[in-house]
Each structure stands twice: as C-alpha cells, then as structure tokens.
Design goal:
There is one protein chain. By secondary structure, the protein is of the alpha+beta class. 52% of the residues lie in helices and 15% in strands. The longest helix has 45 residues.
C-alpha cells in the first residue's frame, strides 16, 4: 500500500486534500448552526424586557389567603429566604440560574396612591403611585449617599402606622424627596405614613448596574416611570402620573399586610445564558411548564412554605418566540445543506473515476489471475482508507478545535460519513466495473443496453420529485409562523419538501441524459454534410454513451448549478423582501414627522429638497384617527399634493397612479375623488357610493376613485388619500389654515440622515429628532440585526458558494477522467495529420455541447423553481420582515446566469489547457496503453 502511495503521491495528496476540506465543511456546518442558534437565543434574551428574561414567581399574601399570624410568618425574612432557596433547588438542567444575581422580597400587591406636599403631579387630577418593597440584600448591593438605610421600626396603631424607607438618587431627584420628608399611602382605613431616611445608589459602575438583574427586576426600583392613562372619552386628552418605589427594611414587611390588597412575595432569578444553548430552549420551556404542573407545584409549595407559587409567563413566551423563529429558519438551511451534501457526495464518488480509469488494466489483470471481488474491494479499501481516514480526522479536528461547544456528535457523524464515502468510492467503482471480465478489445465509449431497472429507478425519482414539489407547495418550507413543513415544533419536519430542489435537479439530469444523445446525433448528421472531419468526429463522440461527461458528473454539475442558482434566488428574495418591507414601513427613502403633529414651517420642503442626497420631496398632512362615516374609524388619512405624491409613487413603485385621478372636478359640491385601500373601497361599492370623511375641524364627502393595496403615506391598516387642492376648492375657508398645513415629509434619493435631523432640529429646537427622522436604510438594517437571522443568512451563503466550488471541482474531475482517452485520441489523429488547431476544435466540440446543455438545463430548472417551489417557500423567517408581508423567491438574473456561465467558462478554459498540455507531448506509447 505504501508503495502504491509512493507511486502516485500527487493523486494521494489531492485525494487527501479533498477529503479533508469536505470533512471540515461537513463538521463545521452543524457546529456553526449551533453557535448561531446559541448567539440568537442570548440576543433574544438580551432584547427582552428584564421581566421577560428571568424565572419569576410570586406568592400572594393578600388578606383572603390566610390568617393574620400565618401571613406575618409568610412575609418574614426567614420564610422568604427559605422559599427562595426551595425555588432555586427545584430548578434542574438545562435550566440554570445565575448565582448571586437574583432579587427576592416582599412588596405591595398593587401600587398605592401617594400624597405629599412636594410630590409632582404632571396631571393635576392624578396623584403619584408608590410601590413599597422589602427587598433582601439591599444593604450589601447599595451605597448610602445621604441619610441612612431604614430600620425595622414600625410605630403607630394599625391603620395609621409609621415606617421608614429609602429611595434611589433618581427617585429622590424626580419625586423631590430628601431624608426627613414623608408621604402617605392610601389604601388602609386611614393612611400609612412613610418617612424617607436615606438616599442610596447601587454599588459598582454604571455598566454593571445597567446589566444587573438585581436592580431591574423591580421596574421602578432605581428610577420612577411616567405612566400614561388613555383618555376616557373620544377627543379627550391623555393624562400621566409618576410611579416610584420606596424600600423598607425586610423585618418591617408585615406592615404592608394592612394595605387593602395586602402584600406579595416575589422571586426573580436571571438565567445563566453562558450555559444555555439554543437547542435547549424547548427543554427549558417544558421544564418551566412542569414547575407549574400540579405535582411539582405541590412539592415546591411544601418546601417553600409560602402558599401557592405563580410563575410569570414572560420567559416562556420569549423562549417560544425564539423557537418559532428558529424552526422557521431551519428548513431553509436544511435545503441548502441537502443540496451541498448531494453535490459534495457526488464529487467524492466522481473523484474515484480518474484512479479507476488509470488502473483499469491493472485491476483487469488481477481479476484475470483469480482475485475475488471481496479481495479486490478490500485491497482498494485499505489503500483509500490509508489516506481518507487521517484526512477525515484532520478535517473533523480542524472544525472542532475553534468550536466552544455544540453537538459534537453530529459533527463527528458528518465527518465520518464523508470519510466512509471517500474510502468506499474507489472499491465500489472497481467492483461494479470488474464484476465480469472485460475483453481487451472492448471500447469504453460503446453504448450499453438500457436496463429495465434503470428505467424503474428513474421513474421512481420522478415520482418522488413530484411528491416533494406537491408537499412543498401544500405545506411550505420556512413559513414565517413556523408552522410549515419543516417549521414545526420538532425543528425537523418532513424531509420530502426539503429534498424538492435536489430531486428537481436530479429529474432534470435524467431528462438531459435521455435527450442529449438524440439531439447530438441530429447535430452529427448535419455536421456530416460539411467538409472536414473535426465537427463530425467531435459531435459523434459526444453523442456516444458514456459521453465526455459521465452520468454522475452530469448529475453533480446540474445539482451544483441548480443549488447555486437556487441559493442566489433565495438571497435575492430575502434582499427584495427587506427592501419592500422597509419601503412599506417608511414610505420613501426618508420620512420626517413633526413633534406632536405640529405644522411644518413654511419653506421647509424647499430646504429639505436641497439637503445632501435628496432628489425628490413631497409634504402632506397626516391624520391617524380619521373617521369614514358609517364605514370605518381609525383610518389613516393623508391630504397630499397630488402631482408630487403621484411622482413619488411612480418612483417607488408603490401604488402608482395618475395625478389627474385626484384632481377636483368642476362641481365643487360633489364628493371628492380619493385613493382608498381595498377594504374601504369595497364597502363603498368601489366608487358607486360615497360618505363623509370626518377629521378634527373638517368634514368632506369622498368617494373611492382609485384603489391601491399600499401607498407611501400609510404604513398599515385602512387609508384614504385626498388632494389638498381639491379640499381647498371644496372648502375655501380651509385654504392657508392649519387644517391643510403639511406635518409630514417624504424624501426620495439617498438622503443623509444627519442633515435631515439637523434641518428638523433647526425648525423644532426642543424636539428629539432621532425618533422623528426615519431612514429606509436604517429600517432595512433592523430586519437583519438579530444574531439568528444573520447567522442563518451567512450559513446559507456559505452553502451556496460551497456548492459552486464543488461544481468547479466536478468540471476538473471530468477533464481528468477523460484525459487518458483524449490523449490517446489526439495521438492517433496526429499520426494521420491532424493539426493542433483541429485538435483543439475536436476537444471543444466533443465536450462543450454537453456542458452547454447542462448549463441550460440548470438555468431552466432554477427558473422553473420559482413557479413550482416558490408558492411553498416563505422567506420571512430568513428576511426578518413583518409577518403581514410574504417574502418569496425572486427570479434574479444574476443568480440564474452567473453559475451556468461560470460552468461554461471553466469548462472551456480547462479544455484549452488540456489541449495545450496534450497537444504536442503525447507519444505513441500512449496508444498502446489504450488499445
């Protein structure tokens, strides 16, 4: 075996490199997906509210849950600590809690109204509300700025008790509290007085405090929040009040029992995300459901001793949302992985062809001398395993070395499958070729008899492909809600829809192999009428079976071209979907809104048109709460400059319309033409009826003159667009008033966000322009800002590029496979007077038609995938766009043409190089090897 390797070191090294790279790729892809899913889960938990990324539980201490003595015992510091310990012990892997970061204690069941001389009231009719909490370990985690921490002293009779509390620096500043001040809590028969004894601040840096669950488990522990109360009647104004937290000593928690709603025990523990993998999200969610089950709850209730524990739903909902996103992305990645695996596996099998062809005479001699098929296979297996096993192990080790975890079993299994396939390729090919003795005069390119088994196998593949396409169209892959095929909760789903692109390429390869010989024979007859032997000889050799491109190579090339084009169309669909979603969310390349729907200053639109990158602007009056009498309320209404707005719709391709359609008629007393959403127009008979459009200070009759699914001025929901000029003519009293003054501006082009914000800040100096200026590019980037989507897109791109690389390698292996025969052919024809130029033409005519047909078949198959597979593939999960906007495959020109053209260019260059290398160096000894 060592002698065999030393006899052909170049081939052994190339074979080992192929196995190493393929094993590394096979092991690295599942590890990369695990790393991406882990990062996606951590990012999802970081984006969630503090209450939604913690294991939270509460126990009631309301008056109706027990007697006075029992409730006092329940809220005592020792019992609360015991309950917290029991809760942490009930948690088991994979759910792990972060040590020392939890927060537990007792607080008021509901915020109580607070009254005091200095407490601020943004709305005079709404007093502030306070939550009084007795949180454990506050003295260890805080630093006193002024005064002292509260003592456990509670004085005064029940109903008029006095207790001490401390507040944070932000609370003291906002609520105008200082040591010595006091406020009263309502909710007891009389009132409870709370005296502030100190002001505290968290220990550690600001960054540590910002990420600390201890300080953010209770929302207003560090800083108060301004709560908005919606108006109680239409047309009313919103009211606000301050909600703050005051901290008392844990020993004084029993005083909270005298409040009307009593007290509540709380336990908040953040997850240890460093030990949590994305694949464990379902297990964690199920474990939390088990903690709420009757049996586990009874055991935990006995161990805790604080009554029934109620678990928060924030963390399970966060994990469930991540699971839905992950399950929706997995089928798309699995489709790319299956295509890559098919291409790589075929190339590994094809890699054995040059060695088998080179050693054909040797193996035939061994069979003639009596070696058995098992003995021949074992001998070749030992030779290939000597190279494949170390190369596969090195590839797996290279993939595992930089990995920080993940499912190593899947990675090792994938690398092992690559190693086994590479090691068995040559033995299996030799056994199939030498089952029966081959006569020395047999032609390798002689057509064989077509077998019935092959016909049955081809028909079976066609049936499977049809079933896969039907299943994909019916169930879908990568549904945005995660309920499609392969998008279920199991994360794997049905494999048949995932195989649809590969099976479609296989059917195309079978049809190509069936249709190529008759077509090439027809071209051969046409070439026979021309003078010169080159065209006839080249096409005649191409029409024989096996041809210059073997069947497995043809399949590998077609699958690789299809997978690469399909991957490009998926990525193009994702990009187009994000562009469309961003355009629908913004309405143009930039949108400027005014604070509080104030009017834009006169001349603001002209200034914006001169800003950097702005090519077109249009301003309009936006109303979010319009009323279409008798039809719908809460309608988005836009009073626009019809010509400018029409130009913007044509530029964006978003509900384009002629400006004259909204122009006012001669009769100013009739209903005004309006552009409406389909649901509103349908209710008005698509223009046969009209109704009144009611806005603050304005009521005009309108009728649907145009119907569009979307328009730049409305981001979602029903909408009505009316010309400002038409309104001004119908109601002359509104011309030049605030009723028609624009308050929103849309800009097209490549606007500079900084320049637009600066321009808006000059007009409204006190406004926060960061939220008033929305850019389409920023909105588009937001759709791909999650680690899971970014990682999935990166892996899909890697799989598509790898498939293209294996396609190039398949071309090289095809050229190597047919090199000995071509060298012998050129040698014979050179003895008959064939020139170098004629030899080059012969090789090109022999192989390029097959490569051209393969490229054309790949393009047609990829193009057919859009109507066949497109309806069943929803790319919303990969694009990250809103669920109301479907994202489908896009017949991208570059994706359809670049892979086939690259195949033709590579094949042509390879043939020219092969002609150059074999044109003048082949000797007559080559002929004796091929006879």
């Amino acid at each position: 075996m060592w002698a065999r390797l030393r006899a052909a070191p170049g081939g052994a090294l190339a074979f080992g490199a192929l196995v190493l790279v393929t094993a590394w790729l096979a092991a690295a892809l599942p590890l990369a997906w695990d790393a991406s899913s882990d990062a996606g889960l951590r990012a999802a938990l970081e984006r969630a509210r503090p209450a939604d990324r913690m294991l939270s539980a509460t126990a009631s201490a309301a008056p109706d849950t027990g007697g006075t003595g029992q409730l006092r015992t329940r809220v005592s510091p020792r019992r609360v600590e015991r309950a917290d310990t029991a809760l942490r012990r009930a948690v088991r892997a994979p759910l792990r809690l972060a040590d020392g970061e939890g927060a537990y204690g007792v607080h008021t069941a509901t915020p109580a109204e607070a009254s005091g001389a200095g407490l601020p009231r943004p709305s005079p009719g709404l007093p502030p509300k306070a939550t009084v909490t007795a949180q454990a370990r506050l003295a260890e985690r805080s630093r006193v700025v002024r005064g002292r921490l509260p003592r456990p002293t509670v004085t005064g009779p029940q109903g008029r008790q006095h207790l001490e509390a401390a507040v944070s620096t932000a609370t003291a500043r906002r609520m105008r509290l200082a040591p010595g001040d006091s406020f009263r809590l309502r909710g007891v028969p009389d009132a409870m007085t709370v005296r502030v004894t100190g002001v505290f601040t968290p220990r550690g840096s600001a960054g540590q405090t910002a990420d600390s669950p201890f300080w953010h488990a209770e929302p207003t522990l560090l800083r108060p929040s301004l709560v908005t109360v919606p108006p109680t009647s239409p047309g009313g104004t919103k009211e606000t009040y301050w909600h703050f937290t005051a901290v008392i000593h844990p020993e004084a928690a029993s005083a909270l029992l005298t409040l009307r709603d009593g007290a509540e025990l709380y336990f908040h523990h953040p997850l240890d995300t460093s030990a949590l993998a994305g694949r464990q999200a379902g297990a964690v969610r199920r474990q939390m459901a088990e903690l709420s089950a009757s049996g586990a709850t009874a055991r935990l209730r006995t161990a805790a001793g604080v009554g029934r524990l109620t678990f928060g739903t924030g963390l399970p909902e966060t994990l469930a949302a991540y699971e839905r996103e992950s399950d929706a992305v997995q089928p798309l990645l699995l489709t790319a992985a299956v295509g890559l695996a098919t291409t790589a596996g075929t190339v590994l099998l094809l890699a054995a062809a040059p060695a088998a062809e080179r050693r054909r005479a040797e193996l035939a001699l061994l069979r003639a001398r009596g070696i058995s098929l098992p003995g021949l296979a074992g001998r070749l297996l030992a030779e290939t395993a000597l190279v494949a096993v170390p190369a596969g192990a090195a590839g797996a080790a290279a993939a595992l070395w930089p990995s920080d975890g993940g499912r190593t079993g899947w990675a090792l299994a994938a690398a092992g499958a690559v190693t086994v396939t590479a090691a068995l390729a040559l033995p299996l090919r030799a056994v199939m070729a030498h089952r029966r003795p081959v006569p020395p005069t047999a032609r390798p390119d002689a057509p064989g008899r077509r077998s019935r088994r092959r016909t049955v196998a081809e028909l079976t593949v066609c049936v499977l492909a049809a079933g896969a396409v039907a299943a994909l169209r019916q169930g879908g892959a990568g549904d945005g809600d995660g309920t499609g095929a392969g998008g279920g909760g199991n994360g794997g789903g049905d494999l048949l829809p995932v195989l649809a692109p590969v099976l479609s390429a296989l059917v195309a390869a079978l049809l190509l192999m069936r249709c190529c010989p008759p077509l090439l024979r027809l071209l051969t007859r046409l070439a026979a009428r021309r003078r010169g032997p080159v065209a006839f000889l080249g096409l005649a050799r191409a029409a024989r079976a096996p041809s210059a491109v073997p069947g497995p190579a043809l399949w590998a090339l077609l699958v690789a071209v299809t997978v690469a084009s399909f991957g490009g169309m998926v990525l193009a669909g994702v990009a187009d979907g994000r562009d469309a979603a961003a355009l629908g969310a913004v309405g143009a390349d930039a949108r400027l809104a005014t604070p509080g729907s104030a009017d834009l200053p006169p001349g603001f639109a002209r200034k914006a048109a001169r800003a950097a990158g702005v090519e077109q602007v249009t301003a309009y009056r936006a109303h979010d709460g319009g009323d279409l009498a008798g039809v719908a309320d809460a309608v988005t209404v836009a009073l626009v400059d019809a010509p400018g707005y029409a130009r913007l719709t044509r530029r964006n391709g978003q509900g384009a319309f002629p400006a004259a359609a909204l122009a006012p008629g001669r009769d100013t007393t009739g209903p005004l033409p309006a552009l409406m959403s389909p649901d509103l127009a349908r209710k008005l008979g698509n223009g046969s009826r009209y109704t009144d459009l009611v806005l603050p200070g304005l009521q005009i009759p309108v009728r649907p003159a145009l119907v569009r699914d979307a328009t730049p001025a409305a981001q979602q929901g029903p909408f009505v667009v009316v010309s400002r000029e038409a309104v001004a003519r119908a109601r002359p009293d509104t011309r030049g008033t605030a009723l028609l003054a624009p308050n929103t501006l849309l800009a097209g082009g490549h606007p500079d966000g900084t320049a637009l914000r600066r321009l808006l800040a000059e007009a409204f100096p006190k406004a926060d322009t960061t939220t008033l200026v929305t850019l389409r590019t920023t909105e588009r980037a937001r759709y791909a800002d999650t680690a899971l989507k970014t990682g999935a897109e990166r892996l899909y791109r890697l799989a598509a590029l790898s498939a293209a690389g294996y396609s190039a390698l398949a071309v090289v292996l095809c050229l190597l496979h047919t090199a000995p025969e071509r060298r012998a052919l050129l040698t014979r024809l050179r003895t008959l007077g064939l020139t170098r130029r004629q030899g080059t033409g012969l090789l090109l005519l022999e192989s390029l038609p097959l490569y051209a047909l393969t490229a054309a078949a790949g393009t047609i198959t990829s193009l057919a995938a859009v109507p066949l597979l497109g309806p069943g593939i929803d790319l919303r999960a990969l694009a990250g766009t809103p669920g109301t906007l479907p994202v489908r495959l896009t017949a991208d020109t570059a994706s359809l043409l670049l892979p086939p053209l690259a195949l033709l260019v590579l094949a042509g260059c390879g043939l020219l190089v092969q002609t150059r290398l074999t044109g003048g160096t082949a000797g007559l000894r080559t002929e004796t090897q091929e006879l």
